[in-house]
Amino acid sequence: MDIPLEVLTHANIEQLPTITAQSPGAVIALPSEESFAVMCEAKGNPEPEFRWTKNGQEFDPSLDPLLRKEENSGTFVIPNNGNLTEYQGTYRCFAFNKLGTAVSQEIGFMVPKIPKFPKEGFDPFEVEEGQPFILKCDPPKGIPPLQIYWMTMYLQHIEQDDRVSMGLNGDLYFSHVEEKDSRRDYCCFAAFPKIRTIVQKSAMSVVVTTTNSILQRKPSLLTPPGVRSEAVLVKGEDLRLECIAEGIPTPKVEWEKMGHGRPEKFRLENHGKVLVVPGDEQDVGGKYLCKAKNPLGEVVHYFTVTVEEPPEFLVEPQSQLSMIGADVVIKCSVSGSPQPITTWSVNGVPLQDQKMIIFDDTIIIQNGQPSDSAVYQCEASNKHGKILTNANIMIMNLYPIILTSDGQEYSAVEDQGVMMHCKVFSSPPSTIFWSKDDSSELVTGPRFTVHDNGSLEIHTIEKGDTGQYTCLAKNLEGTSAVDAMLYVKGTFFGRHDNSTYSCVWQVYQWRLIVSVSRYFLEEGVLHIVNVSHRDQGEYRCVARTPVDSDVASARLIVLGEFTLDVPDAPQSVVLSERKNRSVKLRWIPGEDHNSSITEFVIEFEENKWQPGSWRDLQRVPGNHNSAVLDLHGHVGYRFRVYAVNAVGAGPPSKPTERYLTPPAAPDKNPENIKIEGHLPHEMDINWEPLSPIEHNGPGLEYKVSYRRQDVEDEWKEHTVKRHSFVVRNTPTFVPYEIKIQAKNHQGWGPEPKMVTGYSGEDFPSAAPDDVAVEVMNSSVVKVTWKQVPKDKLHGHLGGYRVKPERKATFRSHGTVSGLVPFSEYSLIVMSFNGRGNGPGSKAVNFKTPEGGGFPELVADVQKRSISLAWTPPLEPNGILTGYLLEYQLKEAGPLQTVNISKPDTTRWHLRDLEPLSKYRFQLRSCTSTGCGSIVNLESTTLETSDVRAAFGRLYRCKHLIRCRDEKAKASQSHRASLSTGLASVHTGISSQGWFIGLMSAIALLTLVVLIACFVNRNKGGKYSVKEKEDLHPDVESQGINDDTFCEYSDNDEKPLKGSQHSLSGGLKAEDSGDSLVDYGDDDAQFNEDGSFIGEYAAKKEKRASAEIKATAQTPA
Length: 1116
Hints:
By secondary structure, this protein is mostly beta strands. The protein has six helices and 85 strands.
């Protein structure tokens, strides 16, 4: 019985000891910890002393110089000095004073040994193909939980499936072995997360001997043995039942709870071989069966599950204060399975007092006396655990002590209520009476209620209730009384009495003005000394009485010049209200420098994943100076704060001390789950993993659960550490429901959300029907078709591809553009999905109407005239009817138009042009449907008279310029023509001295190169003619490739041959393969004075030199 502190100020009452804190049931000495505290704290009057027992024997921590004893406490600290095993054992604390002794729960101090597999070698296990086989793990004992993995020497997981799986005992079971199971490095790894230890068993070799006669056989169980077995489950734990069968084909396992079908909440693990029923499920106990079957037969095993539970208090003994001579009843009711054994102790000593009556779970103390005051212990135990509780029994008589102050004043407003208190402590309990104004009559009536704690409540106060009230407490030991005064007032507004009001000023969104030297109050008036712009804001005055209040507000605007700056760093940043997953951060704002702080930004830094990196955690309004921070588990945090105003962000505060949160289960599950099917019988599940700080503790894994949506199916589950999983052997393109749940060593994350996806797609198996084509114009057609049925798509419809000469994507119809006019096409339509194209439809033939083509254009430039020459379009796209020529001065000038009606015209002479002026020409070829694309040409008239070229022949060259140096990324078609008098506007270059010298040098260099080649041949060096010809095809021996084309004509009147064939590779063998582009820059210049010959010679020289160098480096 805890005696209130107020009582101790009135009377020196002694109190039994009470244990207030102790260590948990087990203290594990982890190697990483520096020390281990075995805690025991207690209170009482007089102050309690402490003693300990270890394994039932007296133990005095103060006698061991290595142990550190806490003053005024029972706690002692064991240092981690490497010699901890001598302290291993079970401890119990006794807190005592002259009145009695309180006893703690048992505290186990455990020093875990490093678990190890025995050193042993294994001969290879020889197994005949098709036979069952078990690889034993036999993990060592250690601190749970235990996690077992089967891996190779290269830390690759052994793949497990219906045929190969790991049992609950860690053994690896093979329903039947196959040749691929042969390997020399089967390794069993045992992980003990609490002590951060992983141990490995020696590698085992399995040799599978092949056979030509593998017979199918019906199932039999590898585990558990026999037909029946019993399982004992401790209440609250998950039930796990296991059946692993062998047979060919691999048996499937089914589960059932006899008489109930399947439990409401269950899940299957290990490919359906393990049934898991959550511990919170009702009626877990009962009879279960597993059935393993294949086409040849089945086998059944029956389980009888019994649920037991550790001791638990149904009725816990309560501390009591009882009067002398009364009977004291102490009840301790306990449940558990097996039924716990209950023992009673008094002050830590087994109960032997003949005066007490023990009846089942109850002790009765008859005619209790002060000598019977003691601490009574009730302890219950069974094979699953032990619990103990203390009950302080005080037997004494005490006159009433009223703990409420005498002369207390209360104020109330009419028509409201009031509570007047009278707190009393006494033994035996007192009877409470209330009276008014020294009257002997008690206060009674429907408006008055006296509560069990002695308080008087008046409902719907009236003006006449004003007065003095007396509380009278009375028991066998005496009487005590206190007075209280009640004042009843009218409502606040319009009040004309002489009530006293308190006035509180608030500013900056109602922050209280406290301890600011520049502010002071005088008769309710707020004075501000040395006003600055930071004082700007809204102020309000709150006038209060004990019973009501009123508010008035005003806004202060400060005028004048001031300097703005970012806020100073907050000061005195401290942590308080520390909890496992949250902490409260407080700070004092710094100077705001004439600009109000709009917000505070709280940053954190953790020392595990990104040490030294400060990141934003939370933002709070500028009128706050504290915040509660929600934290992740298993993280060492530091915090700092900076302020922000209209100028910007200020510097951060000094960081707090490091705050370490304990591990916890994950708070969230993975997001952005993507389900894809790259192959017809697979489903790829990918998700965004939790960030490291969201792990909340070590051992993060993901449980992948999936089942078919279109049929009734069971959930299948797999636990993986990566953030992807592949489901194999799925039907093609069927819907699945998928859940991803995170877990770590501390437990599971929240219940995951379910998403829907589809398994892998396959090629569509049907082609579109009823394909029809509607010609829109000369280059566009509209195509329609009947859609492919959904069951033939085998995937999500991506669209339809229409294939004339190019591909396009549509839905149920589409428009094809970019066709060549006046042509005949054959068109097919096919559907496609994520896997690829389906079969094509029947071909549909159609023709495009006529359309305009485009010619090639060159110019012969004179002083005041220009002669234009062109070739007919390679693709007239119909029957040519003429040309449309337009020209104008490039800078400014009207657009002139010339209609040329004769289709065989290929020249046009324009006169009366401005000398030395640039003109732009546009030429279009026309058919009956209109004119085609524009061909542009720009040319400048000469300043002098025309100078004829030195050539007397017409060169017409069409070549495709490609990237010669691999740096260029684009290629473009370019056409050039060279004819007499049309090659260049440059004159007189052949008479220049520098040109004559250049030609001589090039000729001399060419001669040197030829001599070097000749000498090299005579010395026996091999010259790769084949390679040379492959690089630069010869006119006589090689057909033109599709990159270059050049032809020679003796007659100016011969038209150019069409170059359409060069685009498709169908060129004539007699065409020259030697392109002018190989010898000049991309924009080749052809000068009438012979400069083109110089360019040609220079390029020839460079190419020959490069070839000789390459040949010289090649061994003979």
